[in-house]
Automatic annotation (TrEMBL), chain A:
Keyword presence, Flavoprotein: yes
Keyword Cell cycle: no
Identification of the protein by name: NAD(P)/FAD-dependent oxidoreductase
PROSITE patterns: TAT (PS51318)
Stretches assigned to the FAD/NAD(P)-binding domain: 32-160
Pfam families documented for this protein: FCSD-flav_bind (PF09242), FCSD_central (PF21706), Pyr_redox_2 (PF07992)
Domain Sulfide dehydrogenase [flavocytochrome c] flavoprotein chain central: 166-305
Coiled-coil segments on the chain, per record: none
Keyword vocabulary terms for this entry: FAD, Flavoprotein
UniProtKB/TrEMBL annotation, chain B:
Record's keyword annotation contains Transmembrane: no
Highest taxon listed in the record's lineage: Bacteria
Xref: SUPFAM superfamilies: Cytochrome c
Protein name: Cytochrome C
Annotated signal sequence range: 1-26
Organism the protein comes from: Guyparkeria halophila
Length: 450, 129
């Protein structure tokens, strides 16, 4: 910033229309939307806003110069893809769509002046602010777990990045027939089927290596998870997995009778919440995990701590006591600060899961709503969709959850329809779901970032 | 990676999309029924922005004739056309929404660049700077 600009800011009126440009009345100039976060939610909002309302000035504030997609990133650990395969460029957003980027971190938000300040000294005025910062992790919830240990010995690898490579290295260094502990987080969390897909991928990797006595123990605070109906069934077929008795409630008596009870079980064990799966503490030195069911000694420990909204949303007062951000679920406008919209994993969105597809769907609805609101019109009645694909472990066996969502009063509710492959799904259907899963990675990424 | 898949199963689940020649719209949102746009944009996470997709297992929707879209959704919904997840998704939309989506996709121009913009050398309309 030069001296002249600085004086301009000093001389700006207290009404908050300070700007580095000619001071036009708000209605006379192009509306300005500033977006914090260049992940799925932020990128999709920016792209669709430029498609739907091209005259809008759209700026994304994102410290990273390229994005790493967390969706599908467990495949980096087990070597189906490389880290470079999850790296996504911001070039298309800039050259094709005219989105501006400020590669700095947010320092503060002045809600009254409608201005964001970065740690690089940039000040950005907005008419509407979009906050889409993903998730942060509550390491304090599990005794013995720290942010430092997550970078070294106990990676969660739940936000892409180098932790994936640490986990990959750990996997490749495991002794013969090891015990791997995976600790999925309590609800709500990002990517509901993800921890179980990862367990399957690791089990398959160990079997492929010839480790017939390996154990992959899932210590779970929950009694169920999205896609469990198909995932547990697939494991029963693929990995000689015996379903724990309390899982009976997920199936009809007829279906339950069709599941195999294996004499000798395969690698995967699922310790449900009601069977003592909740993790209390971890000892990185001794490599033990203390759960309600007892102590588990492991060669590799992958605990995903409880999640909360992205740190910036918490720091800037957008989250409530739950750790997530309350919003008007029609427009995603924060209930705590006007003209600020929170989308994606950080927001409380009724029945919608915290998934990439959900963030993408919310972002497109938000683009329509922002166009209306900036023009002084009423918001539109939203429709949302979510589709999450997951692999059983064997990458030719796929499954999904698919839902449409609509407003029910002031809350986003799920339209009651079949969500999963049926119990009697054929091998072809499981194979097709896997084929679509791999096609989806590319198609979805393009919809968000290109 | 090698993925073997039964060809018959694939053919049963795929349909070609020959695009019709239709008037081009500079900006779809000003012309599209808001219901159609709202519902249609939920498809894009798999079928591509505005239904444009290439070299994919997903069927392109941009430029699909109106009746073909409606027939496909109806036959997914009643199960006469096999699918993995399109059956439940098709059932979750109203007839009115499906008709509006069909209009939206039929109205998309043939060329992706016309609809979504050029990647390079494009002059982007900017507000005052």
């Amino acid at each position: 910033m030069n001296r002249r600009d600085f004086l301009k800011i000093l001389g700006a009126s207290a009404a908050g229309t300070s700007t580095l440009t000619a001071p036009l009345a708000r209605a006379e100039r192009a509306p300005r939307v500033v977006i914090i976060g260049g992940g799925v939610g932020g990128a999709t909002t920016a792209k669709y806003l430029k498609l739907y309302a091209p005259q809008t000035h759209v700026t994304i504030i994102e410290p990273k110069r390229e994005y790493q997609r967390p969706y599908g990133s467990s495949e980096v650990i087990t070597g189906q893809i490389e880290l470079e395969d999850i790296v996504i460029s911001y070039d298309d957003l800039q050259t094709r769509h005219g989105v501006e980027f400020v590669h700095e971190a947010v320092e503060s938000i002045d809600y009254d002046a409608r201005q964001v300040q970065t740690n690089g000294g940039t000040r950005l005025d907005y008419d509407r602010l979009v906050v889409s910062p993903g998730v942060s992790f509550d390491f304090d919830a599990i005794e013995g777990l720290t942010a430092e240990l997550a970078e070294t010995k106990l990676p969660h690898a739940w936000d892409a990045g180098d932790q994936l490579l640490v986990l990959k290295e750990q996997l490749e260094s495991l002794p013969e027939n090891p015990t791997v502990v995976i600790g999925p987080p309590p609800n709500p969390y990002r990517c509901p089927p993800g921890p179980y897909e990862r367990a399957g991928l690791i089990a398959q990797w160990l079997l492929d290596r010839g480790d017939t006595e390996a154990r992959v123990v899932i210590l779970d605070p929950k009694n169920g998870f999205t896609t469990d109906y198909t995932m547990l069934h697939a494991w029963n077929d693929l990995y000689d997995f015996n379903l724990p008795e309390p899982a009976r409630s997920k199936y009809s008596d007829e279906e339950w009778a069709q599941l195999t009870v294996h004499e000798k079980t395969g690698p995967i064990e699922w310790v449900m919440g009601e069977l003592g799966g909740r993790i209390l503490s971890v000892d990185a030195e001794a490599m033990t995990v203390e759960a309600e069911a007892g102590t588990f000694k492991a060669d590799m420990i992958n605990i995903i701590p409880p999640l909360k909204a992205g740190q910036i949303a918490i720091d800037q007062g957008l989250a409530d006591d739950s750790g997530w951000c309350p919003v008007d679920q029609r427009t995603f406008e924060s209930t705590r600060h006007a003209n600020v919209h929170v989308i994606g994993d950080s927001c409380i969105a009724g029945a919608m899961p915290k998934s990439g597809y959900a963030a993408n769907s919310q972002a497109k609805v938000l683009a329509i709503q922002l166009k209306a609101l900036l023009a002084g019109n009423e918001p539109v009645e939203p429709v949302f969709q979510n589709t999450c694909y997951a692999l059983a472990g064997n990458t030719d066996v796929g499954m999904f959850v698919a839902d449409v969502f609509r407003m029910d009063g002031d809350t986003i509710a799920r339209v009651e329809e079949q969500r999963y492959l049926p119990f009697d799904a054929t091998e072809t259907e499981y194979r097709l779901a896997a084929l679509y899963q791999h096609n989806w990675m590319k198609a979805f990424t393009e919809d968000c970032f290109s | 990676m090698n993925r073997q898949i039964s060809k018959g199963a694939m053919v049963a689940l795929m349909v070609g999309g020959t695009a019709m020649t239709l008037p081009l719209y500079a900006e779809t949102t000003t012309t599209a029924d808001p219901k159609g746009l709202m519902a249609a944009q939920t498809c894009a996470g798999c079928h591509g922005t505005k239904g444009y997709i290439e070299d994919s297992a997903y069927v392109p929707l941009a430029g699909m004739p109106r009746e073909r879209f409606i027939t496909a959704m109806e036959s997914f919904a009643d199960g006469s056309r096999p699918s993995t997840l399109m059956g439940p998704l098709a059932r979750a939309f109203t007839d009115e929404e499906i008709a509006a989506m069909a209009d939206y996709f039929a109205a998309q121009p043939k060329g992706r660049a016309q609809a979504i913009g050029q990647a390079k050398g494009q002059t982007v309309e900017q507000g005052e700077d």
